Amino acid sequence: MYVIDIQIVIDSTANVPEEMLLAHANLRVVPLQIILGKDEWNEPELTTAELFRLAGEKGVHPQTSQPAPGAFAQAFTPATEGHPVIMICLSGGLSGTVNGARAVANKDFKGREIYVIDSCTGAIGALKMTEAALAMAAAGESACVIAEYLQRMAAATRTLFIVDSLEYLRKGGRIGGAAALVGSILRIKPILTLREAKVQVLDKVRTQSRAISRMLEELSKEDSLAYIGVVYEDEPAVVEEMLTSIRQRYPDVPVSRSALGSVLGAHLGPGVIGLIFQSKV
Amino acid sequence: MQPRVEVIDGKDFRRMITGAYSAFMRKHEYINGLNVFPVPDGDTGTNMLLTLGAVAKAVTEAPDEGIGSLARRGADSAIMGARGNSGVILSQLLRGIARGLSGKDTATSAEVGKAFQYGVLYAYRAVARPVEGTILTVAKGIAKGTYRAVRDHATFSDILTAAINAGGEELRRTPELLPALKAAGVVDAGGQGLIVFLTGCLEGLEGRFSGPEADFGRTLTVPGITADIAIAHPYCTEFIVKRFAASLVEVKRQLEQMGESLVLAPGEDILKVHMHTAHPGAVLESAIAWGTLHDIKIDNMADQHRKTIDLGESLSAVPAAPQDKDKLAIISVVVGDGMSAIMRQLGANIIISGGQTMNPPVEEFITAVHNGLAEQYIILPNNKNIVLAAVQVKKLLGERVAIVPTTTIPQGFAAILAFDPGDPLEANIRKMTEAQEAVRSGSLTVAVRDSAVGGQTVPEGSYIGVIDGSVVVWADNIASALKQLALYLVGADSSVVSLYYGVELAETEAERLAEELGKELEGIEVQVYFGGQPHYQFIVSVE
Predict the structure, then answer these.
(1) Above 80 in pLDDT, residue B225?
(2) Strands A85-89 and A7-11
(3) Quick one: pLDDT at residue B41?
(4) Which superfamily does CATH assign the domain made up of B7-212 to?
(5) Whether A207 and B496 lie within 8 Å, measured CB to CB
(6) With contacts defined as CB-CB under 8 Å, which chain B residues touch A188?
(7) Which end of chain A is more exposed for a tag (fewer CB within 10 A), N or C?
């Protein structure tokens, strides 16, 4: 086995599985932090269910923090030894991670080969980009080619989600006051999307089942799908039903389900059902 | 012996309008009662009374003497003061009369007769779907009677009498032409209104006033806008320029750049100016050059509005309307505190209070638009009785106004949910119209009279479920009527039933009924909200 030159860095919100980390020596995870009052955790140390339980007990609203500059610096160190680094970050619409990473790369690693990519998505979307990056690196592609490909993946990815309440997004300043208000009456489920580095309201419908149908309607507008991912926090029965219907309709597309990480949980709140998919690039 | 009136002048016209107004003072409750329907409906008589009140006030106070210009003023104020569909029809009647008398100082009886024929023609053109047995039939009868009398060179009193007789004959036939009228044992309310109008004109012309004196009190209330809205041109500025010595065209050009709602009333060497502006000082400064300034009056319209505002505490979180002009704003007509609060939270910029039995005047919409909140406005009438008034507003204001013809409040909710302020007007109208069409809704009320539905008698006091103006279900208890109505509305793809309970129902009672209904509807979510509407225990919508 030869050592792969290119280093792939991913933030913790992609929920990289343990096996994947063990299998790739050139893959590294930079954790974001969860803050509850005076307590602080690295994201992987706290499950989403734990987070909501503790937040409820303490009566505090959870906050998150992007990785410290030092954590980025550590992850980028191989660049000083001539190894190109590609960092894949959670959507700039939800987190400052991508900006933090760029700041460190530009300031402390001037002239080094570091590519900071805004995934424009998160969770399974970022994970799929990581898989692609690892495979291309193993196949001997150059970092520049990989980075360009990842950017095209990001542009071809759509991220839709619904939440129980827009309270978390509003408190986190990730959605405007007017939109948050709409989500609080008539049990309206706004269908949210990540677009132009912002959380935007795609449509507003009433009830969860209609919201899911509306998300699946968006899915059906894509011609050639590379993958479909369902991300969730709680609501296992609803998610199972949704997966069954997707698998029936798209027997040839890889479909995955994954639980929401605690940072995204803190951003979006309980009851998230997300649909992330990418058209082939 | 009746006075013979061969030449009709402005004074006669004034008397006719005042006579018509006092006739409606006496008859409006009777006309309100000509309701084919066992539910409280748009009050035809009240709407005509209030509309005519605006006309009578304008005609009485106008300085003009010529019959043509008085008729014009009367028609203009009717168009602005029109309430409800019947008010709009009446305003068209007056428009027709004004057209027939245009430019005349006095008129012969034949000319006035022809003008009234025009009026009747305009009136039934305003009816969206001409159906025999309605105002249309009566109008045709009147036209025939008038035509014969004019041809025979009768006096105007005789022409009016002939019109009333011929119209009255047709009015009595309306129950034969329209089964709904026959079943309810009434004649057509709009047609009756037309006869009352003509009878009042005749009484006024002949100086035979009876009943209460004309009292404009009911019509003098300033239409209030029940919304805290940002006003781009807050100062209502009025003044008179005496020894006016400037070009009117030039004055108009200058003032138009300084505000809006500009009205210039020129007289001999005198000009009255009314406008809304953000800079009253600058307006007055310019005006000094045109003559001497008198009766200067500057009001901050925000003060007027604040007085009429009564927003619930729940609305305090609503962000203030933006100071800059938006591209698009929504004007929504709503009745009920709860319904208004929901509509506002869904993003309605301006709420006009009104509904089935309280139809807001056209002027209220115009005032709302003139506040300059946005470049263009979308009106959600949310009631069939208000659609025609909205169409009238569109006719008056043209491109600035568009209508999504919602006929129920739940349709209004669906429409506003589809609204995206970032999209152009056309795209919004298309999406909003589509969205409101997908909502099925009905309402639950108590029958105010016995009625016949599908060959069966529905006794007064029954709970009735109404969809699109028809009674579809009824029962002697509210739970059963609610269940039947909901079952009538739900389809295979329905997933949520929303109940908006009215002011007559207690919250606990509403919730109990909702819970009971939930047990009956498997797989469908039942949600209950406070609507606060009068008359209707529940407004029900299914999506």
Answers:
(1) no
(2) parallel
(3) 64
(4) DhaL domain (1.25.40.340)
(5) yes
(6) 417
(7) N
